[in-house]
Amino acid sequence: MAILHGSWVKLDQRGILQGARSSHAIAVVGQKVYAFGGEFEPRVPVDNKLHVYDLDTLAWSVADVSGNTPPPRVGVTMAAVGETIYVFGGRDAERNELNELYSFDTKTNNWALISSGDIGPPNRSYHSMTADDRNVYVFGDCGVAGRLNDLWAFDVVDGKWAELPSPGESCKGRGGPGLTVAQGKIWVVYGFAGMEVDDVHFFNLAQKTWAQVETSGLKPTARSVFSTCLIGKHIIVYGGEIDPSDQGHMGAGQFSGELYALDTETLSWTRLDDKVDSGDHPGPRGWCAFAGASRGSQEGLLVYGGNSPSNDRLDDIFFLALAQN
Question: Highest taxon of the source (predicted)?
Answer without folding.
Answer: Eukaryota
